[in-house]
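I have been asked to look over a protein record a colleague put together. Alongside the sequence sits a line of tokens, each denoting a local backbone shape. Please read both lines and tell me whether the tokens look consistent with the sequence. Take the sequence as given and treat only the tokens as open to question. I have pasted the whole thing underneath without changing anything:
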Amino acid sequence: MVLCLPAPFVLSYIVGVSSGQVADWLRYKNILTTGEVRKVFGTVGFLIPACLLVSTSYVGCDYTSLAVVLFTLALGIESANAACYTVNHLDIAPRFAGILMGITNTVGTIPGIVGPYIVGLLTNDQPTRAQWQKVFYISAGVFVVGWIVYLLIGTAENNLGTHLMRTFWCLLTLPGNQESL
């Protein structure tokens, strides 16, 4: 079982790099637009892990190897988002991609902080399969909500992000420094 520990990270690496390569190929061959590529890989990276997490919640204690495989696949396939929202900052505001990445990573860290607390609340008194199913359903729900939000408002157009970041940047800078934008 110890040999399984790096498996999610190895799979994440393989899926993340492969997703980027396939996404670039789809764009280079004009098979899909940049926005379509982002949404296709978002669908893969959000929905498949959500389904795998729900499936994991139904695996009994007698099948721990299957649970580990399903959970590993969920974590690994989530890396398909490397060709979705992870690089989307470069699409919408190339000049401010670093700032956007910092802001979104900060917000994206909140589930990592709140998640263990919620898991503790749900499982400390009753670490039953039903309680753990709630944990997996909540996680799957976060994936599905993220997917829906990205499908509805996600874009690969440069104008929107640049305009928003330029406005934000102008509010933060001194009046005399705005001509550099």
